[in-house]
Specification:
globular, mainly alpha, 3-stranded antiparallel beta sheet, Peptidase_M41-like, about 5% strand, Peptidase M41 domain-containing protein, 3 strands
Length: about 190
């Protein structure tokens, strides 16, 4: 049933463990592009988790909406990386449901955009992350590193190791004074 709409990846990407590593690499690369520090990557199926330093700045609904937008962009990064590296995105992943739920929350908080408008805007932002050739070139080496950690019996990868790898692959983290969607948008519009 699903194979008709979503072909099963071939080659190395047919290995679910490797595909999860590609997916998590996409989350990490997206978080890095937005200026977030990677705290850890937990490579256990259902669901693997990237923990980054998103913080609610202020006590307002606008600040909350910003954190939710940033999380959506990170979530999109996994699918986009998988599409680039494996020529297909996994079907029926939990991230799609999470993004849907988060965009509906954002729409409810803001009240002036629909969940669909927010979805497409945030997906476009995540796509812009992967327009950078350095980011695309980093997907496979970072995935290989994460996959190797799991194979060596270390499914929780400390953020410092991921950060060091990202420094080598894509350079230092962007300016942390303006994190997230607003900073990323202002940088990519130029």
């Amino acid at each position: 049933m699903y194979e008709e709409n979503c072909p099963i990846p071939e080659g190395r990407c047919a290995d679910l463990g490797y595909r999860l590593a590609v997916y998590e690499a996409g989350h990490a690369l997206t978080a890095r592009a937005m200026g977030f520090e990677i705290l850890s990557v937990t490579m256990l199926p259902r669901p693997p988790v990237l923990e980054s330093d998103k913080v609610l700045h202020g006590n307002s609904l606008t600040a909350l909406a910003s954190v939710l937008e940033n999380r959506c962009i990170e979530l999109f990064g996994g699918q986009i990386a998988e599409q680039h590296a494996c020529a297909s995105a996994s079907c029926c992943t939990g991230d799609v449901a999470r993004i849907d739920e988060l965009t509906r929350l954002i729409a409810g908080i803001e009240g002036d955009r629909s969940a669909e408008e927010i979805w497409f805007e945030l997906e476009d932002v995540a796509e812009r992350v992967f327009a950078d050739q350095r980011i695309r070139d980093a997907i496979l080496p970072l995935a290989e590193f994460l996959y190797g950690e799991v194979e060596a019996g270390r499914p929780v990868v400390p953020g410092a190791q991921v950060e060091a790898m990202l420094d080598d692959l894509v350079g230092p983290r962007p300016d942390r004074s303006r994190k997230g969607l607003r900073r990323f948008l202002s940088r990519t519009r130029a």
